[in-house]
Amino acid sequence: MKACILSVGTEILMGSILNTNTKYLSEKLNEYGVSVLYHTSVGDNPQRLKETFEYYLNKVDIVITTGGLGPTQDDLTKEVIAKIMGCPLQRDDTIYAKIEAYFDGANRVMTDNNAKQALVPIGGKALENDKGTAPGIYIGKNNKHVFLLPGPPREMQHLFELHVGPMIEKEKNQVIDSKYIKIFGLGESTVEDKLLPLIDGQVNPTIATYAKRGEIEIRVTASGQRQSETEELLTPVVTHIQELFGDSVYSIDGGTLAELVGQRLIKEKLTVALAESCTGGLLAGALTDIPGISSVLQAGFVTYSNDAKVSLLGVSEKTLEAHGAVSSETALEMIAGLNKKIGADISVSITGIAGPGGASDSKPVGLVYIGLSYFGQMEVHQFNFHGDRSRVRSYSVLSALNLIRKKII
Amino acid sequence: MKACILSVGTEILMGSILNTNTKYLSEKLNEYGVSVLYHTSVGDNPQRLKETFEYYLNKVDIVITTGGLGPTQDDLTKEVIAKIMGCPLQRDDTIYAKIEAYFDGANRVMTDNNAKQALVPIGGKALENDKGTAPGIYIGKNNKHVFLLPGPPREMQHLFELHVGPMIEKEKNQVIDSKYIKIFGLGESTVEDKLLPLIDGQVNPTIATYAKRGEIEIRVTASGQRQSETEELLTPVVTHIQELFGDSVYSIDGGTLAELVGQRLIKEKLTVALAESCTGGLLAGALTDIPGISSVLQAGFVTYSNDAKVSLLGVSEKTLEAHGAVSSETALEMIAGLNKKIGADISVSITGIAGPGGASDSKPVGLVYIGLSYFGQMEVHQFNFHGDRSRVRSYSVLSALNLIRKKII
User: Fold this and answer.
1) CATH superfamily assigned to domain A257-408
2) What ipTM was assigned to the predicted interfaces of this complex?
3) What's the pTM value of the predicted model, to 2 decimals?
4) Least CB–CB distance from B284: residue in A48, A208, A280
5) What's A2-171's CATH class?
């Protein structure tokens, strides 16, 4: 099946908002085995919306629109498309009652505008929305499938997962199942090169990679008649990929590296202390993003200056003079200082050159030392990251998390 | 003038990349007074690209494409569109020499594929690209203006600023000038409500607002025959907006709040010490994003647990018992502790409930206390932020930066 995603809203054409809905829907539809052939956006203009919708409906099997379902006069996606599809609008009493209850609960007056959200095309179907007042709409006619979804990403994604995905699955008479394998510590091109023989000629399951700064996700998607069949298709491929990438794989169907490490620390009651120089608090910031981490994160130090390294962590001035702040020796004394001062199960230190300044011939931008003490056993790892200040800092944080992961998981 | 932005690339339709190019171009074109009527994306498919381009060229004055200018076989934007526009391709020797030099410099062999990047439509114009090998292309014909830009955002933005913007300005025979006013501490709807009388009926300059988490940017854009004319149009409106929002305005044509504060601290040699509880290092992380901050940032403490507040900052256990960790009293003792231990010119403490856990009836999620000591003068500010953990934490960081700003700028 072929699809077009049509975003409606003048704010998109003004560049006021980034169109993340279209990316989300594209990724999902491809997972369901639907070929997305077009993206398009128009403003809140009935004539242009009409022409654009008709143009693309003619070319594909599925059109999904986002936006223009709200209560204001500008919101006219439903009105325009119901007319084109030949489905007059009619009030749906269940939805009307729900909107009424919402306004009662919020002690607000429901206006006629709000009531228009309860209109549903005759022959169409309302897609119930627990996260907002505007329901989604489905119209199926002449082998065309049209889904109207609200614009706010949270509501849109909710309706896709609850209604659209399952309806497409049913239409295709198939079960679609995906596994997400997450990898850290390898470049995207290295991962793709290694996967190539596996991807080549692979139809079911399909394999796709997505790279976010440092973390690479491999999606393996299978379709079949039953869940047991997709599982049979997925298992050997996932195992094969795990073997290919060894302990660079940090999760299957799991969260981010920080979530994985943070949650494990909490579960195992492993206490942690941090001393950060070039990352200046970002590692602590990433770990404290995990609810409940306060039970194990004993202390963090941002020792950006040499003075702070000496006075707060007890790094010796001699070491700083002889080897510099960015050195294996300093990283080691930073964790030794943490052990003496805090005595956590795990101590981590980071010192490096994030740039743009501070580099020399022997110590280029991107040189980073990470010290790790695990129940008193101390080690220091050297890294040479590429890229600008922000990239060096975020790779340092991820690498530190990855070093902790390898000890505790 | 009316425009359509056409993104070319199967990776966009797969959902592998977020289409930030289209947002950038929309924002810029609107600044130049061009109405963007359509966004559209197609894959690397010559027939669909042809149909889509023809459809939209018929409807607008300007079509800007992004992507598909690279050296691979998939890259066919130039070939397809030059044909539609009736402009055969010819090798441009200057560009050819430049690509050749690039490959010589990189010690790589230049292939025929790379050579195709030196082809320029006869009657068209190459838009020189300092940041990559593929030049942009301009074709002007029958009152239609077609710009082909490369896909990588850095190259695309560079070519827009260097060539496309000025060409549109010239075509309109006008100078376009913008001022960016940045505001913190007010909600987006409050800002818009206050601006409404100014926006209503305002044609030149135009006023638009963009909200990023907590920071609101107001863009004022004027067009005129000469720079002096646009300045005359802009100045009273910018002054009026400054008066409307008073000291909530933190910069005009400047950077982020962290950049502004960080750079001022460095310039004035004002030393800083930080103690963070609920933000767990994010304030330190934001400040250490500023190159050169090491000269003034003396130390940062992540005292997430009560134990750390007591042992590292000297907060009294009595205070923690009587008032809790999230209290004005604790925030005060945290800065007092910093003053005693570090003695920086400016000390900042943050303690609050980021959620989802840890809240009570009297202390809801979003309750945050920020302590500020400025040359020994101590004060504590209470905030009640809305939203989830991540939003509470980032508003806390911005609010702390804003408190520092009010002291030093």
Assistant:
1) CinA-like (3.90.950.20)
2) 0.78
3) 0.80
4) A280
5) alpha beta
